[in-house]
């Protein structure tokens, strides 16, 4: 039979408990392996996400550059259209 009695002094005693805490209990090799596998999977997912973010960032930069070039061409075409239009008005007046 286990003795479940205790004293107030034992509750107030700052010394460490006689049994290790759960985190201090050494893991078995199978638990170590499972933990290692989980850590590796998590690291793999993080690396994959980083790679995806990098690819998306590069694609975003490329699309921004294409948009800038298209905007410049559109503005140049609009300037040419206005120039042709103003020349046509001058010729019709003269």
Automatic annotation (TrEMBL):
Keywords: Coiled coil
Lineage top rank: taxon: Eukaryota
Coiled coil: 46-87
Region (Disordered): 1-36
Keyword Coiled coil: yes
Compositional bias segments (type: Basic and acidic residues): 24-35
Protein name stated in the entry: Uncharacterized protein
């Amino acid at each position: 039979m286990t003795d479940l009695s205790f004293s107030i002094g034992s509750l107030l005693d700052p010394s460490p408990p006689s049994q290790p805490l759960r985190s201090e209990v050494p893991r078995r090799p199978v638990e170590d392996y499972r933990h290692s596998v989980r850590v590796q999977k998590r690291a793999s997912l993080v690396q994959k996400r980083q790679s995806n973010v990098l690819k998306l960032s590069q694609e975003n930069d490329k699309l921004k550059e294409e948009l800038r070039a298209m905007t410049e061409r559109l503005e140049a075409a609009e300037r040419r259209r206005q120039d042709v239009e103003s020349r046509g008005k001058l010729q019709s007046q003269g």
